[in-house]
Amino acid sequence: MKCVPTLASMASRAARSSDGPRLIGLGQWVSRYWDALRWNVPYWPVMVYNVVLWLLLPGRKLYEPEDVPGCEVLADNWQVIREELDDLLRSQQPIPAFQEVDPGQRRLTDDDGWKSFLFRLYGADVNTNRERCPKTAHVLDEVPGLYTAFFSILEPYKRIPIHSGPLKGLIRYHLPLIVPDGGECWIEIGGEVHHWREGEPLIFDDTYLHRVRNDTDQHRVVFFIDIERPMPWPWLQRLNRWVLGRMTRSRRIQNAVANAARAAEG
């Protein structure tokens, strides 16, 4: 029988850290859900929906590309995407910090160490950014069920604390574009440490607790993508798309897309 994580059990889990064990306190969870309500994300129905998915779907942390049909176009074109990323970075166009785009992320980051160049967020496009990277946008248009895509840029020595994703109806896809040497840049998923390799996708269920460290003097960039999770039954697929549609229409997501567009237009 599969165990379904409750709020209490998730809140009491500890992450291994060189600074010693650290608990996710009840206050952090309360703050997180208050943010969700404040920004008009339908979080309580999503929580119930996540429990349903935990009951119905196999427990699995990592996935292979063949588990997500249609995503192979991303790895096949990673060098094309990298070239447009390099052009973007050379242009010295200001790229906003993640919490400037989505204020709800301030629980994870409150400095300029995590930047995001957003193409799509829960199905809503940032057209100005798509126009700046047209080849990348074209590749994204070939991926079925793609809901979120952005260049996720970590500055040197940036750490993202332990957290979990909001919705089990998506699968997280990382396409590494720039990875520092030396092995001191990694992601821990469900207690297991993984290292990115440029051009090799890392696909996982982000509702497992995870954290990221870049303990190097170099930048790390991954193409951060969320893809609709394939469901075993048509009725569950329809329900999943309805929930995703609610997320797309929420005030928080619409505000984040507008913030990204304003940042892109200078």
Please provide a written account of the structure.
- This protein is 37% helix and 24% strand.
- It has 266 residues and is α+β, with helices and mostly antiparallel strands.
- It has a single domain, classed as Jelly Rolls (Sandwich).
- The chain is globular and about 45 Å long.
- It starts with 6 loop residues before the first helix and ends with a helix.
Give helix and strand order, one letter per element, not per position: HEEHHEHHHEEHHEEEEEEEEHH
The CATH topology assignment is Jelly Rolls
Mean pLDDT: 86
**How many structural domains in the coordinates?**
1
End-to-end span in angstroms? Answer: 53 Å
Please give the oligomerization state of what you see.
Answer: single chain
Beta-strand segment tally: 13
